[in-house]
Amino acid sequence: MAPDEAVVGCTGKLIIGTRGSEGPGEVLVRVRGGSETFFAWSDEPLRRGTTVLVIESRGTRQVVVMPWSDPSLDEPDHGSGDIGGSR
C-alpha cells in the first residue's frame, strides 16, 4: 500500500511501547482533524507514554517514530539567577 504522508511530521503518544527492531508498538496521532492509531516502529525501544514525532510512513497504518520533546515548552537555563555575584 502507498505511504500515508499526511501523518509525517505529526506528534503523538505511544499507547503501546515499541521494541526497537524486535517489533512495533502503537501510537495515537492527532491528524486530519481527529486522532488515529498506527503501528509504530523505532530504532530503539521506547516506553508507553513517550511523546514521539512521526518521521516516516511505512505504508498502511505503519509509521517510524523517534522520541520528541517540544522545544517551545523547554524552559531556558538562565543559570542560578545570581547576576551580581556574592556580596
From TrEMBL:
Domain of life: Bacteria
Classification via InterPro entries: NA-bd_OB-fold
Protein name per its UniProtKB record: NfeD-like C-terminal domain-containing protein
SUPFAM superfamilies according to UniProt: NfeD domain-like
Residue ranges, annotated region (Disordered): 68-87
